[in-house]
Every structure is written in C-alpha cells, then in structure tokens.
Amino acid sequence: MEDRRRSTPRTDSVLAEPSVREAVLRLGPGIVKQTVVAVLDRCRAGELTPADVVPLVLASLPEGASSLRRVVNATGVVVHTNLGRAPLSDAAVDAMTVAAGATDVELDLATGRRDKRGRGTLAALAAAVPDAGDVHVVNNGAAALALVTRVLAAGRNVVVARGEMVEIGDGFRIPELVESMGATLREVGTTNRVRLADYEDAVDHDTGFVLKVHPSNFVVSGFTSTVSIAEVATLPVPVVADIGSGLLAPHPRLPDEPSAATSLRSGAALVTASGDKLLGGPQCGLLLGEASLVASLRRHPFARALRVDKLTLAALEATLTGPTPPVPAALAGDHEDLMRRARQICVELGGAVPAEAVPSSAAVGGGGAPGVVLPSAAVALPSELAEPLRAGQPAVVGHVERGRLLLDLIAVPAGADAAVVEAVRRAAKTTQG
Ligand SMILES: *Cc1c(COP(=O)(O)O)cnc(C)c1O
Q1: Is the pLDDT of residue 1 over 70?
Q2: What percentage of the chain exceeds 70 in pLDDT?
Q3: Backbone angles phi, psi at 228, to 5 degrees
Q4: Could you give the domains of the chain?
Q5: How far does CA 126 lie from the centroid of its chain?
Q6: Does ligand 1 come within 6 angstroms of the Cβ of 274?
Q7: Which is the closest atom of ligand 1 to the Cα of 366?
Q8: Are the C-beta atoms of residues 248 and 129 closer than 8 Å to each other?
Q9: Are 353 and 385 in contact (CB under 8 A)?
Q10: Which of 85, 216, 257, 286 to mutate to test ligand 1, by most ligand atoms within 8 A of the CB atom?
C-alpha cells in the first residue's frame, strides 16, 4: 500500500508532461486536472502501473471542451429528439465555423455600411418557397408561434380545433404556449371531428387568427373529420398553419406531411415550422407568408428576444443552398443499400462478436410523419453490448428489441460504418474482459 502510494506520480508532474500540457491548451485546465486526479486515484489503488497513467489520461479526455459527446445515431429514428434532432450537413458545419469568427452578418463589405442582418439566409429561404411573400427566422418552432400569437392575437382569441391541441414532447403543449402569450383559446369541434360550421360560429371580430396545427406525433383514425386550410381560409380572419416538420415542399415518401408551399397555396396567411426536423438544418423557427404580416412580426419589439445568432443563420443558409443534409438523405435512402452495408459491417467484425444483418423498420421520429414505417437494415448484436457502446467514444446508440441490440443504419452516415465496426470491437472486448 505504502509502496503504491510512493510510486504514484504527483499530479503536478503528470500535468507537466508535454502531451498533457498540450491537452490543457486545447481543453482548458479544469477537465484535464480532474481526469489526472481520477487516473492517479486508480494508480494509488493498484489498478494501474505508473507507466499507464499518462496514456490513460490522454485516452480518457473528451474530444472537446464541451461535455456534449459525439454520438452515432443507430436508433432507427431519423430525427431523434434526445440526440439533438437533425445532424447538420458538412456544408452547414463549415459555414458555422466561418461565421464563428468576425463575420459580415450585418455589414455590406462593398460599401462598408450596415446591412440587413442575415440577408443571404432570408433570401435563400424565400427562394426555396416562392409562394411566401416574405420570410423571417427565429430561435425555434415554438418561438415562431409565440411571436405570431403575440403580434396578431394578444388580448384577442385564437380559434383552434380540439383535435389539434397537441403536446409535442417534454410537456410542451401548443395551446398553453398560445395562452401564455396573452391570447384566449377558443376550442372548436371534438377530439375526432370538426366542421367548417364550428369555425364559422367561433370566429368573431375579436379573433386574431385561426390556428391549424399539424398533429406531428400521433394519428387519429376511425370516425374522424377535419377541415382543410383551404376551407378555413374562406373565413374573414388570417389562418396560421403550424406545420411543425419544416418540409418546404411535399415529400414523396411522406404524403400526409404538410409542406410550407402547399399550406401557403391552400390559403394560410402564415406558416410556422421548425428548422431542425425534416428540413435537416439547425434549431430555428421558420416564418413564411404574407409580406405585410411578416413585416409586422419582424418589427415587433418581442422579435428581438427571439432573434437567431449568426451561427444559426450560417447553418440554415448552407442547409438551404448546399448539398442534401443528412435527414433528407436518410429519408431518400434505399434499404437494399442499407442491407449491403449491414452485411459488410458483419463481415468486417470477422467473428469478433456474434453479428447478423437483419431487415428493420425505422421511423421518422420527433420530426413528424407519425405512423410512417421506413424500411431499413440493422446489425443485430448481443444486448450486453448496448451499455459499453453507449459509453464509448464515439458513443453508439442502438435499441434493444426481443433480446438483441439492433444498430439500425438508416441514420448512420455511410462514412461512419468503419467507426461502428471499431466501436463494436472495443465494446466486445470490455464485455469479454
Ligand atoms: C416540433 C413542433 C413544434 C415546436 O417546434 P420547436 O422547434 O421544437 O420549438 C411546434 N408545433 C409542431 C406541430 C411541432 O411538430
């Protein structure tokens, strides 16, 4: 015991090692010192030899100075809320890196004068949805709806169908958001049915707008009826469509998912949506619609509290103008191709662990399209690997089904297959060891 204590290196001497000093420059002193102390405790306990200390410190350090870790999404849920929804395209990441420094977000470099903030991003969004008279971007979908309610309906009423009183997740309820902005909800219809006459009876001179909410995370079937945007648009008040998913145009694989273009063409005065669901961009809220309404939203003092930062503007523009981002790419994926990748991963594992390529059913997830099944492929592994895979660097998150761990490939970029193989090999070693 005494011997181990005496032979254990001192914290200062480990921190003075060149490779550890380099890590301090990259990550800051706090996290490195904490790691050194934890590793030295294990050395003192006799779990490691002094020679193991520096290599283990370096291996235990996180990739970056944030506690957020890189995760391979093998859950089979394309837009996974707990994994940060849409992963960004490389083009969006590059754009954010450029914008992270000093950037011309509000400056015209040709004249040296002040310019409209985020003009390139807004122009790209407007070009992507020609049916919109004007566009605006805020922090998220909820912020978009909050701004619309504050500006068009504070102190007035908002008419909404009972079947569209949606809870999105984590206790967030659209009707509560609307009320929190000072509007009164006027509910019409029943859970399963609503008619145009219900809306007609409810709308009065004090109605700010009729709200149409896309039920983005559930389906109601059976004896049901809803009223289309086109029908409510015949009423003498604006229709605001919260489409949630952020599809700008209809998607062939998601026929029931509303898009901004179709909603506007049907007569919605304004559309609100998220930027980090099916669009595949950064977290933000999109507002598209009649130019005069969008102008009044943009000019309202509350808009400043919901303003997006330069990083979001950069990533959103690159999402709109750059190569196809991961989420739409996954939706367009071919399951034969996914099956080939699953088989290849099994081959490369080379018997290190029992693995089988299997067909699987994936879902769009928090992004919308409830009930849509996406044919996919997975690598089936022993379920004991779930925990070590989650603990790895990068973490690999799958899901356990009927006693097996499935690593579904639909949301795994093809370029990450080698990392998955490596991660599974490492995880298998820890369970065997
Ligand atoms: C996701 C969603 C929202 C909330 O959007 P956030 O970007 O999460 O704030 C609002 N309405 C609908 C219909 C949604 O699906």
Answers
A1: no
A2: 99
A3: -75, 165
A4: 2-60 (no CATH), 71-85+328-432 (3.90.1150.110), 90-324 (3.40.640.10)
A5: 22
A6: yes
A7: 1
A8: yes
A9: yes
A10: 216
Is the CB–ligand 1 distance for residue 272 below 6 Å? no
* CA gap 151, 343 in Å, rounded: 55
pLDDT for residue 169 is more than 90: no
- Ligand 1: atom nearest CA of 143 is 9
Nearest residue by C-alpha to atom 15 in ligand 1: 244
The yes-or-no verdict on residue 411 having pLDDT over 90 is yes
Residue pair 269/289 in contact by the 8 Å Cβ criterion: yes
Of 324, 321, 259, 284, the C-alpha closest to 121 is 321
Nearest-angstrom CA–CA distance, 113 and 125:
24
> In angstroms, what is the span from residue 377 Cα to ligand 1's centroid?
29
pTM listed for this prediction: 0.94
Question: Which residue lies with its CA nearest to atom 8 of ligand 1?
Answer: 141
- Residues paired with 114 in a beta bridge: 107
Task: State mean pLDDT over 374-399.
Answer: 97
Cβ 87 under 6 angstroms from ligand 1: no
Q: What angle do CA 158, 160, 161 make, to 5 degrees?
A: 165
| CB of 214 closer than 6 angstroms to any ligand 1 atom | yes
Confidence of residue 306 (pLDDT cuts 50, 70, 90): very high
Asked if the peptide bond before residue 62 counts as cis, ω within 30 degrees of 0, the response is: no
- Sequence-distant (6+) residues with CB within 8 A of 257 are 214, 245, 247, 250, 251, 278, 368, 369
The pLDDT value given to residue 219 = 86
Can you say whether residue 416 is alpha, beta or left, with left for phi > 0 and alpha for psi between -120 and 50 degrees?
A: alpha
User: How many whole angstroms from 142 Cα to the centroid of ligand 1?
Assistant: 6
How confident is the model over 403-414, as a mean pLDDT?
97
Characterize the bridge pairing of strands 157-161 and 167-169.
unpaired
Query: pLDDT value at position 220?
Result: 86
3-class secondary structure, 350: coil
The DSSP H or E segment spanning 408 is strand 404-408
Alpha-carbon distance of 228 to 241, in angstroms, equals 11
